[in-house]
Write a structure and sequence with these properties.
With about 350 residues, the chain is α/β, with parallel strands linked by helices. It folds into four domains: about 110 residues, 3-Layer(aba) Sandwich (Rossmann fold), CATH 3.40.50; about 80 residues, ATP-grasp fold, A domain (Dna Ligase, domain 1), CATH 3.30.1490.20; about 45 residues, no CATH class; about 90 residues, GMP Synthetase, Chain A, domain 3. It has seven helices and 17 strands. A hairpin with a 2-residue loop joins β14 and β15. α2 crosses α3. The termini are far apart.
């Protein structure tokens, strides 16, 4: 069996791509533009897993992908490509394969396009009677009046992105005025509509569905591998569904670095330092000495001296006067291999 592997590989640090034959729309300019694309290790791991079933032909989903797919004459296309830009980017590969008559895995173009556009997704959920948070779709400043009708706090994000693209501390807003400011920033940065929805607290899970129609089944609940501590269920306890996976009784919380103080205390859960503080897109707190912190801040257009003063005050209130704070403005915060970054980094 000949298996095609459709993928998008994250650019290397020099900004170059792995495939030289590239003709495509202009790349997005946001710092997290390629966070959904996969790193070489992930692509290689998928390739190794597929090789059990036959010969694998790599087909990077860029440039002249359609002609390369036709020439490869594969029996099946394994699609893990994300696409580059636009409301239907995740549907591009599936649509090309469908046009060429190539069998492919995962969802069809209609499903991929509807699921990527969160506004269309929520409209369908609401029509089907499935609970979803109240929302407004902001396509331009002319739609800002809709932000007054939502219950606050509100969370905003680009409407057709995933993997936390465009998601930052500043997206959590508490007033219509701050919602308007953040919506304007997102409209300019991502050149797409913005979804604004009433903020829901609690854990978030992903449920994969395999199969079609009446034969579809759900796979076990998953979360990002984010270092959370869990309490396992009693030994031998199994799910009523019949699957043999270990059960979890409780998700306790995320394992993250904490700040160490000179009196021996450790302080964690510092995200509240930024709640309600405007002018911040992303932030990371770093500690290299007991008596000093460095806060890396990716500022938005509304960052000003007042923002600095509020951050300084919040740190003093939480940690006392015995630790200094340097606020350093940066263009981007370095990501780890999975495209994320830690909120707190302690090297003490």
């Amino acid at each position: 069996m000949r298996i095609g592997l459709a993928y998008n590989q994250r650019p290397n640090p020099t900004g170059k791509f792995s495939h030289t034959r590239r003709r495509q729309p202009a790349a997005p300019t946001a710092t997290d533009a390629y966070v959904e694309w996969d790193d070489p290790e992930t692509i290689a791991a998928v390739e190794d897993a597929l090789r059990v079933f036959g010969d694998v032909i790599r087909l990077e989903a860029v440039g002249n992908f359609a002609s390369r797919l036709r020439a490869a004459r594969v029996d099946l296309l394994f699609n893990m490509a994300e696409g580059l830009a636009g409301p239907s980017r995740e549907a591009h590969v599936a649509a090309i394969a469908e046009f060429l008559g190539v069998p492919y895995t995962a969802s069809d173009p209609l499903t991929l396009a509807l699921a990527l556009h969160k506004g269309r997704t929520k409209e369908i959920l609401a029509f089907r009677g499935i609970p979803t948070a109240p929302f407004a779709l902001i396509e331009s400043p002319a739609d800002f009046a809709a932000l007054k009708r939502l219950a606050y706090p509100v969370f905003l994000k680009p409407v057709w992105e995933g993997s936390s693209k465009g998601v930052a501390i500043a997206n959590h807003v508490t007033t219509p005025a701050s919602a308007r400011r953040r919506a304007r920033e997102l409209l300019e940065a991502y050149t797409q509509p913005v979804l604004a929805e009433s903020f829901l607290t609690g854990d978030e899970f992903t449920v994969a569905v395999i199969g079609n129609g009446a034969e579809a089944t759900c796979l076990p609940l998953i979360r990002y591998r984010c270092g959370d501590f869990v309490r396992p269920a009693a030994a031998g306890q199994r799910c009523a569904c019949g699957r043999s996976f270990p059960l979890i009784e409780q998700v306790i919380g995320r394992r993250d670095d904490s700040i160490k103080l000179s009196d021996g205390r450790s302080i964690g859960r510092l995200d509240h330092l930024f709640k309600g503080v405007e002018g911040i897109l992303e932030a990371q707190i770093r500690q290299d000495r007991l008596d000093a912190l460095t806060m890396l801040v990716v500022p938005s257009a509304t960052f000003n001296d007042c923002t600095r003063e509020v951050l300084q005050s919040n740190v003093r209130h939480r940690m006392g006067d015995g630790i200094g704070l340097e606020i350093r403005l940066v263009d981007a915060i370095p990501r780890t291999g999975n495209g994320k970054f830690k909120g707190v980094v302690c090297n003490v």
